[in-house]
């Protein structure tokens, strides 16, 4: 027990600036804070800056106090429901995150309370600390020691996330889905991670989510769909299940392939440059996600709507220097060329990929002769050429001859800037660089 217990109220303590400053290095005051953390939280909500400073200090005694008093979590949730004060919401989000970091056995301590208030948390998702807290909750199963993701999915977290995006276009939803995708692929989370995937595929709001995104060409929404698609790829080299058997994430997207194709179409203008825009960049990433799906019906729709051709039209278009898009297209090409049985591989050759790669290489050489440097597309085009040349069934003599003569010869010629002979300069006693000589008396 602290000597201050029964002597000071929280309000009186916070008014005493000396006690507040001494808190950081006085054990007795820290013990008082441990026993009166809830009262400090009440003062925090009333706008007391000293209470905020102490509670957000991240000191162990504060974290112990926050988790010790079972009144604190419901109190924070209640205030999230009733306040629209941005700074207070941010602070509560930080404190919730700190509480989670301190207690690793959250499924025992607070999960029952968290389950009851999933909707409240999601409603405040535009607050970065709240969003980070939700991400921490959903990815808490890294080593499968608890089942927070499973429990929160049971309480409808996917439904609330989709609902929040449909109604408010909250970027926090995109952040959360992205982090779950990364978490699922980075760690061997097993069946725990599949719970979220199953909930996404069975969520009744999924068609409405797609409609709200593609009818408005919502950039963040396109990014969200790209992440969702990476959750349910087929493990087979080429899965030929019928359309009705596709995961809903893919099946419900099929009616919007026309929109995707339309967004990928570059304007036909006489202007020397063209702006791709973030929407088109995110759409190319979405196509990359479709290419790794390994579903035959998905590939068939890509071919039907000429989506792959338009993606490569963007790659070969000389009116832009968007390396981000071109790198994604290189990834698309390499993935397709590794799938021997994929209809997209045939589509790529029918598109004339061999001739276009050679044309771009010739253009890059001419560009260098004029500007003394290669254009942005040169190195990325070389990556595609290498992948094409390594194909065992390649029978295009013109392409093979160009690679083995022109490109191979060019790559074997040493540059004058990196030659084996190194020029040296001899410095003699009478050498003068034109600068005044200073005698330092040494």
TrEMBL record:
<dbReference type="InterPro" id="IPR007587">
    <property type="entry name" value="SAPS"/>
</dbReference>
<dbReference type="GO" id="GO:0005829">
    <property type="term" value="C:cytosol"/>
</dbReference>
<comment type="similarity">
    <text>Belongs to the SAPS family.</text>
</comment>
<dbReference type="GO" id="GO:0019903">
    <property type="term" value="F:protein phosphatase binding"/>
</dbReference>
<dbReference type="InterPro" id="IPR016024">
    <property type="entry name" value="ARM-type_fold"/>
</dbReference>
<keyword id="KW-0131">Cell cycle</keyword>
<dbReference type="GO" id="GO:0005634">
    <property type="term" value="C:nucleus"/>
</dbReference>
<dbReference type="GO" id="GO:0019888">
    <property type="term" value="F:protein phosphatase regulator activity"/>
</dbReference>
<protein>
    <recommendedName>
        <fullName>Serine/threonine-protein phosphatase 4 regulatory subunit 3-like central domain-containing protein</fullName>
    </recommendedName>
</protein>
């Amino acid at each position: 027990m602290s000597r201050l217990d029964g002597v000071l109220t929280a309000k009186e303590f916070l008014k005493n600036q000396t006690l507040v400053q001494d808190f950081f290095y006085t054990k007795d005051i820290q013990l008082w804070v441990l026993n009166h953390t809830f009262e400090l939280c009440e003062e925090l909500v009333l706008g007391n800056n000293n209470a905020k400073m102490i509670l957000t200090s991240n000191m162990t005694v504060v974290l112990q106090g926050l988790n010790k008093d079972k009144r604190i979590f419901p109190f924070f949730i209640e205030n999230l429901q009733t306040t629209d004060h941005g700074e207070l919401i941010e602070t509560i989000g930080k404190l919730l995150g700190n509480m989670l970091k301190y207690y690793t056995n959250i499924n025992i301590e607070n999960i029952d309370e968290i389950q009851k208030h999933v909707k409240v948390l999601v409603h405040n998702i535009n607050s970065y600390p709240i969003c980070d807290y939700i991400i921490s909750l959903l990815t808490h199963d890294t080593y499968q020691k608890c089942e927070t993701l499973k429990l929160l999915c049971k309480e409808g977290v996917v439904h609330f996330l989709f609902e929040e995006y449909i109604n408010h276009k909250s970027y926090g939803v995109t952040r959360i889905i992205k982090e779950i995708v990364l978490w699922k692929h980075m760690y061997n989370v097993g069946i725990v991670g599949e719970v979220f995937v199953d909930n996404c595929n069975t969520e009744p709001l999924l068609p409405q989510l797609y409609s709200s995104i593609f009818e408005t060409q919502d950039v963040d929404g396109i990014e969200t769909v790209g992440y969702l698609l990476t959750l349910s790829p087929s493990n087979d080299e080429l899965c030929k299940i019928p359309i009705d058997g596709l995961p809903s994430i893919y099946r419900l997207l099929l009616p919007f392939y026309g929109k995707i194709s339309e967004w990928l179409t570059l304007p036909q203008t006489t202007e020397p440059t063209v702006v791709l825009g973030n929407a088109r960049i995110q759409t190319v990433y979405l196509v990359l996600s479709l290419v790794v799906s390994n579903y035959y019906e998905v590939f068939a729709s890509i071919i039907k709507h000429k989506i792959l051709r338009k993606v490569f039209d963007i790659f070969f278009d000389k009116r832009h220097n968007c390396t981000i898009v071109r790198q994604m297209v290189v990834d698309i090409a390499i993935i397709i060329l590794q799938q021997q049985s994929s209809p997209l591989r045939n589509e790529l050759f029918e598109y004339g990929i061999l001739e276009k790669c050679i044309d771009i290489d010739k253009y890059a050489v001419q560009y260098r002769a004029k500007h003394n440097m290669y254009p942005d597309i040169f190195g990325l085009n070389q990556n595609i050429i290498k992948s094409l040349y390594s194909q065992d069934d390649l029978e295009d003599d013109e392409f093979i001859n160009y690679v083995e003569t022109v490109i191979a010869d060019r790559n074997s010629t040493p540059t004058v800037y990196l030659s084996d002979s190194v020029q040296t300069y001899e410095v003699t006693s009478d050498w003068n660089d034109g600068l005044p000589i200073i005698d330092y008396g040494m």
